[in-house]
Structure formats: C-alpha cells, structure tokens
Amino acid sequence: MSTFAELLVNGISMGSVYALIALGFVIIFRATEVVNFAHASLLLVGGYITAVLHDDVGFLLALAAGIAGAALVGAAVELLVLRRARVENHAVLAIVTIGVDIVLTTELTRQIGTEVLSLGDPWQSKVVNIGSVSIAQTRIAALLTAAALITVFLLAFRHTSWGLAMRTAAEDAETAALMGVRLTRVSLGAWAVAGALAAVAALFLTVFPTPGLDRATSFAAMKAFPAAILGGLDSTTGALAGGLIIGLTESLVTGYQGDLAFLGRGVGEVAPYLVMLAVLLVRPAGLFGTRELTRV
Amino acid sequence: MSDRPPRPAVLASDRLPRPAVLAAVAVAAVLLAFPFYLDSFWLQTGLFAMSAAIGAIGLNLLTGATGQLSLGHAFFLAVGAYGYVYLASDGESRPGHELAGLGLPTPVAFLGAVLLAGAAGGLFSPIAGRLRGTYLGIASLALIFIGQHVLFNAEPLTGGFNGRDVPPLALPGVTFADSPELVVFNVPLGALERLWFLGLALLALAAWLARGILRGRPGRALNTIRDHEVAAAVLGVPVARYRAGVFVLSSMYAGAAGALLALVFRRTVPEYFGMFLSLDYLAMIVIGGLGTAAGAVAGAVFVTLLPQLLTRYSDGLPLVAAPGSGGVSPAEAARVLYGAAVVAVVLFLPGGLLGMWARLRAVRARRRAAPPHPGLDQKEQPA
Q1: Of B130, B150, B346, the CB nearest to A92
Q2: Distance of alpha carbon B318 from alpha carbon B306, whole angstroms
C-alpha cells in the first residue's frame, strides 16, 4: 500500500510538471493556432541556462535567468520566424516549428554532449517520511510550484486585461483585432509565457530522482504532447487533466512494471502514448477539447 | 499564345513538349550509367537518396497533398524493413538466440513488406481518418515510441538491440548480392550496382503512381480536403475515408522505402528508425516542395546528400559505410543546416526547391516570349 501511495504522489507531482509544459503548449495553440513542436527545445534552453549559471550566481538567480532566457527564445521564435511565415496551411507552420526544434535541439545536445548537468537545486536527494511513505522533497517542491504557477496563470487568464486579450483573440481573432486587441502582442506574450513555464518544468524534469539535464531530457519533455492532446489542444483545463493522467500512468506503469514484464522492458515510457491513443479513439477532440461543428 | 498570360510553369509539363522528353531521356541515361562509373560510397548514398525519395513521395501524398501531418513515418519504414527481413529469412534457433522467419521467396517478401506496412497504416486508420492536420501529427508521435519499444523488445521478430541480417533479394535471373559475379562492359556489378537499377525502377514506379494519383480525381479530392474540409464534404468527398486511405497509401510507400533501405544496409538496427528519421522526412518534403512527387524527390536528394557530403569532405574519411558513422559533428552540422533550411524555405521560398525551379522557368519563358503589349505584364500581377 505504501508503494502505491508513493507512486500516486510521484505521479501527481510529475503530472503537474507535464501540465506546466502542456499549458504553455495550449496557450500558444490558442493564441496563434500553431502546434509548437519546438516546445521541448524551449525547455532544454531554460534548463541549459540554469545548469550553466548556477555555480556562479546561485540557484535562484540562475533559475530566473533560465526562465528569462527561455521566454526570450520563445518570443524570438515568434518574432523572427512565425510572424513572417505567411502560410495558410497550419501543418506547414507546425513543420516550421519542427525546423526550429531541429536547430535548437541539435545545438543544445551538442553543447551538453555526453555530460549529465546538475541544475543546482537546494533539495538534492533529501526525502520526507510520512509514516511508511517516503517522498523526495523535489517531488513535493514540483507539486507546490506547479500548482502555484498554474493557479496564478489561470487567475491572470481570467481576471487581467492580458488574459482577456488572450481569450478574445482565441475566440475570434478578427473581431478581437477590431476591438483593439493587438494580436501581435498577444502571440508574442503567449510564446514568452510558454517558454517561461517550460523553463520551470525543465528544473523539475531534471531534479532527483532523475540524474540531471542530459540528451534524453527532450524526450521526457515530449510526454507533454500526449498530455496536451488528450486533454484537448484548445483547453487549459484539458492540459491540467492531461498532464495528471500522463504523470499517473507513467508512474504507476513504471512502478508495477515487474507485473507487466510480458510487455517488455521500459513499458512505462510508452504507456503515456498508449493512453493518448485510447482516448483519441473515443474522443478525437480530446477530453475537454471543443468538438468542432461546422455550419454550412 | 502571346496574348494570353503564360500558364503557370507547374502546369507546363502537362503536355510534355519535345525538349522535356529529350531532357528526361538524357537524365535517365545518365542515371543508368552511374553504376558503371561511381564508387561504392556514391552508389550507397544514391541508393539512400532513392529510398528516401520513395518514402518522401508517400509522405508528400499525406502531408503535402492532404495536409495531414505525420511524425510516424519512421515507424512504417521500420515495418517495411523488418517485415521484409521477417518474411524473407529462415528462422534461426540457437540457445538463447531465437529468430523467427517465414523463409518466403524474396520478391514475395518484398511485396509482403509493403502490404504489411499498409496494414499497419490501416490499423491506425480509426485515428488517421478522424484527426485533422496537426492533431494527427501529435497522435502519430505515439507510433515512434511504440515502434521503438516493439523493435527493442520483440526479440524473436526483430533481433532486439542488435538487429537482424537482411537476406538479399533474388529475382529470377539476378540476385542482388555480390556473390554470383556479373560483369557488364568490363565493369563488375556488385550488390550496390545491381540495387541501383532496382532502386531506379522502384522510384520511377513510385513517382509515376503518385503523379497519376495526384493529377486524377483522388488527387483533387485530397487537395480539397487540405484546402477546405467542409467544401470537400459538401462536394461529396468522403473525408474520413480519403484520409484513412491516403494514410494507408503513404504507409505502403514508407514500407517500400524501408524494405529497399534494408536491402542497401544489409542489416536492420532499431535505433535508426527513431524520431529523427521522421523529422528528416518532413524536412525533405518542405525543402523539396509540398504536394508533388518531384518536390519529394528533390528534397530527399538534398536531405540525404547533405550529411554525406559534409562527412565526406569535412574530415576526408574514406568510404564511410553507414550514415552518421563518420564522426558526429558533420552529421550535426548537416542537421542544423537542414533545420535552418526548413525555416528559410517556408519564409523565403514558398514552394521549396521545386517552386524555385518553376519560378526560374516562368521568368525565362516570359523573357523569351517578348510581350507585344508592354502593359500586359502589369496586369498579370495580382493587385
């Protein structure tokens, strides 16, 4: 039972990290209708900056620099690439972000090389014991931070003029523009916020029990894609639910993979994608996505 | 002729005028002559390019013509490659090392591999038919990870981490291997030389089929689905069925490409069929030009040759056997270059290499047909 509780807490904690990434992904999709395949590389940018700087300036400053750096790179991608690409077909825009991703990921993995970089977090491998259940401090920190960030974000989305601009732009871009919403600013802001959230997620993807930031981190970040789509690409609630589902699935399947040995080694890595396919079979628009209805 | 605006150059090849026929014959002759002159490095590179071209044509049918993004192309290549190996090789059973195989005649195995890839695409069709565009892109990401998992774990089928040897294809009269010696015009034709002709034939067949599909009724339907799904449905195009159908078709192209690739490599290894391979294919069709067979071929040649050229000339390694084995940094340089090329093409060269070629030809044609009314040129410009 205590194993189960541990797996549950770890799953929820990982899920909240995935939810952070997926949230950024969904924000970009809502603001610009672009599926951002470069999201994993934004995350890598943030993580790498934090990892490089933390020895010199301390953890918190390095993290702030990582967040700012990822936000800047996100904004730069929007400003320099996507704003200038005048194509109707959204699949082509998605492929452009794949191009950006190839460039960024290749360069960053080259920089990282074969090393495993530590991000210099204050929690290290300390563990909290509650009864017979032991939970890593990093997992608790991840859960609390992600929950706080998501709350702040959702409140801002609902109550600030920035959030209003985002929501109206997603609802009907043309009308929003006529009402004085600056669409360019909205999409720039969306990319920057998504980058910042990804950088925070990078921290929690690479702390204990994960060894650190390495080449495989971008693959871990990719699990946010199934999280985003199984919740519904255009739904912030969906991103949260999707993140939790993916986190729990991964944690439980990995934890009990001894009992699932017939499925082969490392089935925990694949399980999120299987869950995504199962959900999409039943609900092609995702759990919370708006079903598109067209009136002719 | 001269009082009409010149037709867009893309259509100019509709009625092959005489120079185009001559050019095509000349290109074919040069391509057929290559094995007699090139060394094995270039032959292998060329074969990789041909296999990539076949796969890219398939992906272009799906992504370029129909607007359905797929990141799962590498999975279907793997199905083709491993399918061929499984169907063609005899089973092996040593203690602790068991490999299954059906031992079918190799041409049958090749066809079977293509059909197997198609069947795998068909299994995915409940999702491929319902999801639109970029949604499918994310969903198909699952295929990569599931594919890698199966390749590494289903050891009796795939040989696991170490992969499996590929039995050479044997058509009646010719075996695509080095052993029964074959000398034509004083040039010994080994496995690569023989495969070169097979590759050309397969590529020609693949391009011809895709061209027919794209220019005929199904092509129009697919383009309408891409441009306006509702309009397509209103015109009576069964959208879901066409989407699923083109997904199956593109998987079969990938299967053929994978089987050919396996024949060239002579060994299949699982990590080759990962995420990056899928990204390569997307880069190919964007760089070459979306929605046409010729664009796919151009992009495939570009993306395949680039790392090989860099590898060859950056550190002067003689005859590298497999792509990527010639040191990491040329491969990385190539990757950054074509990632940037994807972005640059979309920003500055809509239509890709093929679009650029068409525009160059249009400019030349306009110059040649000196306009009798100087004002006409301006009217052609869209306001």
Answers
A1: B346
A2: 17
Domain count, chain A: 1
Burial class (CB in 10 A: 0-12, 13-18, 19+), B372: exposed
Q: Which residue of B has its CA nearest to A225?
A: B138
Q: Do B69 and A95 touch (CB under 8 A)?
A: yes
Q: Could you tell me if residue A61 is inside a domain?
A: yes
Nearest to B282 by CA among A37, A73, A160: A37
Q: Which residues contact B260 (CB under 8 A, 6 or more apart)?
A: B47, B50, B51, B54, B195, B198, B199, B202
Model ipTM value: 0.87
Q: Show the tokens assigned to B241.
A: 């069925």
Contacts of B150 in chain A (CB under 8 A): 264
Share in percent of chain B as helix, strand, coil (round to 5): 70, 5, 25
Contacts of B145 in chain A (CB under 8 A): 269-270, 273
The stretches of B315-351 forming alpha helices (DSSP H) are 328-348
Assess whether pLDDT exceeds 60 at residue B9: no
Residues 6+ apart with CB under 8 A from B360: none
Residue A135 falls within a domain, yes or no?
A: yes
DSSP B128-186: HHHS-HHHHHHHHHHHHHHHHHHHHH-HHHH-GGG-EE-PPPEETTEESSSSS--EETT
Q: Give residues 344 to 383 of B whose Cβ lies within 8 Å of A.
A: 346-347, 350
Nearest to B332 among A92, A110, A274 (CB): A110
Range of the domain at A40: 2-214
Torsion angle of alpha carbons B74, A44, A167, A284, nearest 10°? 20
Is A273 in contact with B146 (Cβ distance < 8 A)? yes
Tell which phi-psi region holds residue B103, choosing left (phi > 0), alpha (psi between -120 and 50) or beta. left
Question: What is the Cα gyration radius of chain A?
Answer: 19
Q: Tell me what the mean pLDDT of segment B358-376 comes to.
A: 72
B14 — pLDDT class (breaks 50, 70, 90) = low
B149 in contact with A at a CB cutoff of 8 Å?
yes
Is pLDDT larger for residue B293 or for residue B19? B293
Helix (H) or strand (E) holding B364: helix B352-368
Give the separation between CA A90 and CA A81, rounded to whole angstroms: 14
- Residues of chain A with Cβ-Cβ distance to B65 below 8 Å are none
Q: CA B32, CA B16: separation in Å to the nearest integer?
A: 22
> Would residue A128 count as lying in a domain?
yes
DSSP label at residue A79: I
Selecting from A103, A229, A264 the residue whose C-beta is nearest the C-beta of B135 gives A229
Q: Mean of the per-residue pLDDT values for chain B?
A: 82
Region B233-240: mean pLDDT is 89
pLDDT digits (tens, 9 = 90+) for B89-122: 887 777 666 788 777 888 999 999 999 999 999 9
pTM: 0.85
pLDDT beneath 50, residues of chain A: none
Q: State the residue for tokens 């040329």.
A: B330
Domain boundaries, chain B: 9-375
Instruction: Give per-residue pLDDT as tens, A233-247.
Output: 888 889 999 999 999
Q: Say yes or no: B56 contacts chain A, CB-CB below 8 A.
A: no
Whether A106 sits inside 8 A of B130 (CB atoms) is no
- For position B3, what pLDDT does the model report? 52
What does the pLDDT read at residue B318?
Answer: 40
* Cβ contact B135–A265 (<8 Å): no
Q: Do A277 and B154 touch (CB under 8 A)?
A: no
Distance from CA of A262 to the nearest CA of B (A): 10
Determine the pLDDT at residue B96: 63
How far apart CA B349 and CA B341 sit, in angstroms, is 10
| Lookup: tokens for B224 | 């309408």
Domain B9-375, architecture per CATH: Orthogonal Bundle (1.10)
